[in-house]
Structure formats: structure tokens, C-alpha cells
Write a structure and sequence with these properties.
The protein is of the alpha+beta class. The chain has ten helices and eight strands. The structure holds zinc ion.
Length: 265
């Protein structure tokens, strides 16, 4: 019998599912292999040596053996455990939201190196814990760009006329902003303030270092979150599980029960 072929890759652990008594199926987001799913044997046993290196939200160097269906993890070493993301529930929820979006918007084995870089950079930014809402909006916009759903913010997506500095509309089904005239024919569109449009454009066309200087008030912050949420939900045609979880967290002041359940997130 020939030995199974093995390979090694960097990976961010983006999802885990229980399998049998002590195993898990992991979704790994990698720089050059895209998303891969692999079996990690025995990692739910308390004494598993690999478990710590294969926790959700960990950046690891993973060795795998090719299998007929799923590959199997045969070794792993932590590159960055992103501890701050695991020790603060708010940061945990934000980072889980980011990895869930990557999971939902990608197919298996589809290389997207810029997306890997974006996710890694986002996890570093989230660890710093300041301006995280803007970090998430930036992440959403650039993720959409990298998976082929870049929203059109430069001109009216329908009549192509330049947008005036007045309240326009965002239309998820049209994939961008509509001028007031065009939005009259669009049932499913939302008002978009001048400032919200400015911020979205700014986020879309700058890098993390530039946008970290930006300060916005809570009202605008909420408007941006809603616009992006509606668009993402439209695209996914379903609730983003972690987004709902973020809302729950906001409403609750005591979250200890959730923490105890963290294993099955
Ligand atoms: Zn128009």
C-alpha cells in the first residue's frame, strides 16, 4: 500500500464541526488552496496535542494527508493564536462574524490569496480593539470586491448619472446606489445618507492604515452596518448566523451562558 501524499500549508481555522466521539471537521482558509475541509482526529480529547493549534480563529501551519474524500490533519503548529480575539467576547463575536462571511462567500479549493491576506489583516486589526465597527465595514466591502460583488458606489447603478450630495438609495438587488429618480421604481432599496455614501466610498478605495484615522458617530455607524447587512443578506439569501449573534450580544449585558457554550459556535 502506498503512503498517502502529504502537504503543508498555512491556514486560518474558520469553522469546526463535531465528528463522531472525539474528532472534528475543520474548514481551513489557506493562502494558495482557498478553503479546504479536513478531518482532525482526536482533537476533542482533553489531552490532544493538536487541539490548541487547531482552535477557531487560529493562524497555524498545518500538515495534511490527502484522503479519498476529506484530507486529514496530521500535524499543526500555531503561528498566531490571536489570543485577544479569544479572551474578549465582543472581539470573539466580531472575528467569528468575519470568518463566517469568508466561509459563506467561498467555495472549496478556490484560491484567493488577497482574501486570505484581507482576513489575516482584519484579525490583526480586530485584536487592537479600536474602531472595530469600521474595521468590519472595511472587511465586508473588500471581501465583496474579492468575491465578485463589489457594490457600485460611484454613480447611479441604473441610469449611470453622477450622484448628487443628497440622500440617495442603496439597492441590494441592483448592487449599488440609485439616484432618487431611479429608486422610485425600485421596491427593495434603502435610503443612503450623503455621509454614509462618503464613508463607504472612502472605505472601498483606501487601505486599513488610512481608514483607521476615520472617526464616525454612532448614528452613522449604525446606518453603515444596516446598509451592509442588508446587502450581504440579500446576496446570501439567508441570515448570517454570526450577525444575529452580534445583535444578541449587544442586547445582553450578561453573556456568561454564551461563553460556556463557546465550544459549539
Ligand atoms: Zn439613476
Amino acid at each position: 500500500m502506498s503512503k498517502p501524499r502529504t502537504y503543508q500549508t498555512e491556514a486560518i481555522i474558520i469553522k469546526k464541526i463535531k465528528l463522531g466521539e472525539a474528532d472534528r471537521i475543520l474548514s481551513l482558509y489557506t493562502p494558495h488552496l482557498g478553503k479546504i475541509r479536513a478531518v482532525a482526529k482526536g482533537v476533542r480529547r482533553p489531552r490532544s496535542k493538536m487541539a490548541g493549534h487547531l482552535e477557531l480563529l487560529t493562524h497555524s501551519l498545518v500538515s495534511l494527508a490527502r484522503g479519498r474524500n476529506l484530507d486529514t490533519v496530521i500535524g499543526s503548529q500555531t503561528i498566531n493564536s490571536f489570543l485577544p480575539l479569544k479572551s474578549d467576547l465582543r472581539l470573539t463575536s466580531q472575528a467569528l462574524y468575519a470568518v463566517e462571511l469568508v466561509d459563506l462567500f467561498t467555495a472549496d479549493n478556490d484560491e484567493n490569496y488577497p482574501l486570505f491576506q484581507l482576513l489575516l489583516e482584519t484579525m490583526h486589526k480586530l485584536c487592537q480593539g479600536n474602531n472595530n465597527e469600521l474595521t468590519l465595514r472595511y472587511f465586508e466591502l473588500h471581501l465583496l470586491n474579492l468575491v465578485g460583488y463589489r457594490p457600485q458606489l460611484g454613480q447611479c447603478v441604473s441610469c449611470r448619472s453622477p450622484l448628487k450630495a443628497i440622500t440617495n438609495s442603496f439597492s441590494p438587488s441592483a448592487g449599488g446606489v440609485l439616484c432618487p429618480r431611479c429608486s422610485q421604481n425600485q421596491f427593495y432599496s434603502y435610503p443612503l445618507s450623503v455621509n454614509a455614501l462618503k464613508v463607504l466610498r472612502f472605505l472601498q478605495s483606501n487601505d486599513y492604515d488610512t481608514i483607521s484615522q476615520l472617526k464616525i458617530g454612532p448614528e452613522l455607524c449604525q446606518e453603515l452596518e444596516e446598509v451592509m447587512r442588508n446587502y450581504l443578506q440579500y446576496l446570501l439569501e439567508r441570515e448570517v448566523k454570526s450577525a444575529a449573534w452580534l445583535d444578541t450580544l449587544r442586547e445582553q449585558t450578561r453573556q456568561t451562558a454564551l461563553l460556556q457554550d463557546k465550544d459549539d459556535i
